[in-house]
């Protein structure tokens, strides 16, 4: 990493970070530290840069005079992460390049997957200019410390980055990659691909809020060029907010085909989650659930209140909030049923459930007493997590721990 310009203090930090890195495995109540001697830390944002630095250093060892010419450009390698292809116009040149590349990889703790169980292959094509023909030389000529590199036959193929390659070139699917459509836009190069992705993004629910970002580009420069005094945690959190990646009930429901989600199998009821009901006098109201079967429909909502508010009162107040003629008409139009009831699941933040709510859960949704117990536990767990989060956030603001 020094060759890439990383300062010595940063290199010392990385050296200390990895030299003291260990993990623990507990067995029969005993555990001993296991020091990691190879690889990089999974999930660490620094890991891909460290891996790229090693691969780039290994590529730098290759001879620039050995390779394959494409017009006026000589290419001796292709690399995408750990998928590498070495190129040469002679078998001897390829053998030499492989030796240099493997030697540098070994110094970085990396090996080439070869041998009978490996993932490497070679292809040697010999061209006879006078006879105007070419043949595939299947003689083995490459070896690594892990074993022999198999040679492809004239009919053999190797998958590289999802594309089948062989002596006849890439399969026909490759030609189709040059002209693709994305969101009804023709994609022929990187620029048109970027434009097509941008156009598709702005049509999506998460992307609509970014549709005017291009009109004020200076407001987006921090994404690719964050200020140096910005902490990593805050930057990642800001990126999540920018991309609409923060957890919400909307995102949780999306994996099940959208916000207004039709389900079946809940005690024999069909379920609509959080419908948006617009009334002429009530405005917008969004109950958590609308449930119905062949004979009856229910409108239900969930509320968690202070422990100073009675559960029965909270239940009745929430029922009165939704038991309105306009909502009844909307539910009747949607379900085709006129027999409509209103209920709620009301509890305080200490996990105490209203008896009216408990009766609804057991008689209508067929929840067991154990289910009701787990619901109280879930409420208390969420209360605990909220309290912890509030305590941490107020500590940094007030400069002292929460009282």
UniProtKB/TrEMBL annotation:
* Keyword presence, Nucleotidyltransferase: yes
The residue ranges crossing the membrane are: none
Report keywords, A-Z: Nucleotidyltransferase, RNA-directed DNA polymerase, Transferase
Q: What is this protein called?
A: Reverse transcriptase
This entry's Gene Ontology molecular function terms read: RNA-directed DNA polymerase activity
**In the UniProt record, does the keyword Nucleotidyltransferase occur?**
yes
């Amino acid at each position: 990493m020094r060759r890439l310009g990383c300062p010595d203090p940063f290199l010392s930090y990385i050296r200390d970070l990895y030299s003291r890195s260990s993990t623990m495995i507990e067995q029969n109540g005993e555990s001993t530290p296991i020091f990691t001697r190879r690889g990089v830390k999974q999930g660490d944002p620094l890991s891909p840069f460290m891996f790229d630095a090693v691969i780039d250093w290994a590529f730098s060892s290759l001879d620039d005079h050995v390779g394959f010419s494409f017009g006026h450009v000589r290419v001796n390698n292709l690399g995408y992460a750990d998928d590498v292809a070495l190129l040469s116009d002679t078998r001897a040149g390829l053998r030499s390049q492989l030796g240099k590349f493997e030697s540098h990889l070994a110094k970085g703790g990396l090996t080439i997957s070869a041998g009978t169980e490996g993932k490497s292959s070679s292809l040697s094509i010999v061209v006879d200019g006078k006879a105007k023909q070419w043949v595939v030389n299947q003689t083995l000529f490459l070896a690594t410390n892990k074993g022999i590199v198999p040679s492809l036959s004239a009919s053999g193929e190797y998958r590289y980055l999802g594309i089948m390659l062989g002596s006849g070139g890439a399969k026909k699917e490759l030609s189709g990659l040059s002209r693709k459509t994305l969101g009804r836009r023709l994609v022929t190069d990187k620029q048109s691909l970027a434009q097509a992705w941008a156009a598709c993004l702005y049509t999506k629910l998460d992307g609509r809020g970014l549709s005017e970002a291009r009109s004020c580009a200076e407001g987006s420069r921090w994404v690719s060029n964050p200020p140096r005094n910005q902490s990593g945690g805050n930057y990642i959190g800001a990126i999540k907010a920018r991309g609409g990646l923060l957890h919400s009930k909307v995102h949780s429901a999306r994996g099940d085909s959208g916000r207004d989600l039709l389900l079946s199998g809940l005690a024999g009821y069909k379920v609509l989650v959080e419908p948006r009901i617009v009334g002429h006098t009530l405005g917008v109201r969004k109950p958590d659930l609308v449930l119905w079967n062949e004979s009856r429909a229910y409108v239900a909502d969930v509320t968690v209140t202070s422990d100073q508010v009675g559960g029965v009162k909270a239940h009745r107040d929430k029922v009165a909030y939704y038991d309105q003629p306009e909502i009844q008409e909307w539910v009747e139009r949607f379900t085709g049923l006129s027999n409509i009831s209103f209920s709620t699941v009301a509890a305080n933040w200490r996990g105490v459930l209203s008896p009216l709510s408990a009766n609804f859960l057991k008689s209508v949704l067929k929840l067991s007493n154990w289910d009701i117990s787990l619901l109280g536990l879930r409420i208390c767990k969420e209360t605990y997590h909220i309290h912890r989060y509030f305590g941490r956030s107020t500590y940094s603001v007030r400069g002292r721990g929460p009282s």
